[in-house]
Amino acid sequence: METFLGVVIGGLLIGGLYALIAMGLSLQYGVARVLNVSHGEFIMLGALTTWSLYTAFHINPLLSLAVCGPAAFALGYVLHRTVYRRILATSPSPGVFESNSLLASFGLLFVIQNVALIAWGANTRGYSYLAVPVSLFGVLFGANQLLTLGCALVVGVAFYVFLARTRVGKAIRAAAQDSTSAALMGVNINSVLALCFGFGAALAAIAGMLISMCYPVTPVMGIPYTIIAMIVVVLGGLGSIPGSFLGGLVLGLIGSLVTYIEPSLTLVAYYLIFALLLLVKPTGIMGR
Amino acid sequence: MLQIVDVSARYGKTQVLWDVDLVVNQGEIVALVGSNGSGKTTLLKAICGLLPLSSGRVEFLGRRIDGLPPHAVVDQGISQVPEGGRLFPDMSVRENLEMGAYPSQAWGRRKETLEKVFQVFPILKERQRQLAKTLSGGERQMLAMGRALMSGPRLCLLDEPSYGLAPLLIAEVFRIVRGLRDAGVTVLLIEQNVKHTLETADRAYVLESGRVSLEGKCCDLLQTDYVRKAYLGL
Prior knowledge:
The complex is a heterodimer of chains A (288) and B (234). With 288 residues, chain A is an all-alpha fold. Chain A has one domain. Chain A is 76% helix and 3% strand. In chain A, helix 1 (2-31) packs parallel to helix 5 and helix 3 crosses helix 8 (189-214). Chain B is α/β, with parallel strands linked by helices.
């Protein structure tokens, strides 16, 4: 029983991070139709910035949220306003836009990664914050890990409420479901798409900040997270933000279970789920 | 109120509209009829900013609106029931209506407007918590029309509101269109159901192959041999 609880809680701990990352990508891919391969680079930027602030200025990692979140939002917003908007304006069809923006984000991945390599160097970094064991149902967890899950849930739920209740949030959901119809209701589509891109980048950076509290960080850490985010977005259902959140938790649980049985098979299991899903239910858990 | 002057438009290399002139005066129901592919929906897209004009101009209340993006056209006071309704399927009926009140001047008054729309469409009040995709065809059309009223428009563009509906519902849709005019909303109605349309509207334009082939008061058009033969099958 204790091992079972351990597996479940362990799964939620990692699943919370997956959920945040996937929600971010869901906004960028599900709404703005940019399959942002550089998503993980924003996670990396958030993680390394938090590391720098903590080691150089002893700034509490949670406080670096106030720096990473807005900075990543601004970067994502400006990127959409400049790069992706231009691609959108010159693409004759949605399909062309998707492939061209995918290529652009690939380029962005290398640019951001190499700038980070120059700025931070290739070394693996880490710091110790709240790394004290806490017993939960007889299983030991790091206090920092539990804090990570708490933060991920708070941010995830807060963002969900923002989407469900506010005028801008509703415009984002409407644009995700039918962007032309949303424009005919008076929604400025270009600015909503840029907002989505900004929010996606901010969620990634916040996830990066949380990851840095528990795991080592390097300038090349981003890509595995990008791939996991893509799996979760498909698992949860393209364009469904609650689906991404749920999908993240589900994938975390599956990962935790497989890791318990045979750690080397975790990634294999993720890809297997991805492949099966595309064959059996390509619309995902909550997709249309 | 709305003046369309010498408008031409094209999709890529294919020209779809040729020097179209059309006027809608305040308080009128003006109909635009024509067969499939005659350019009706294209003209609507040109008015609301979804398709750039290749020449000509569109004026609303004396100001040019061609070249404005769709959301800016809505802000001028023009709302639309797009072809097929184009609801937001995974949003509730109420949220769909709220989206209709998205322009900032309408958003603050959305609760009062909502009550008014519920009076016109009582079925939407009953269904307000349901997702739009669970509605029947008729209810969807009611929702699309209700949503177009939520911005408090001066002019409402309706693209085939009766399409695909049962005869009883069609009559109901046209009754509502007349109700719009009585409520002070000017209407530009695009329809394939020529008989009902000419009986409802004040004036009509007949579009054929992207050109206006006939225009006039509906009562006069109903008497012309050409309309009776080509569109009414009499």
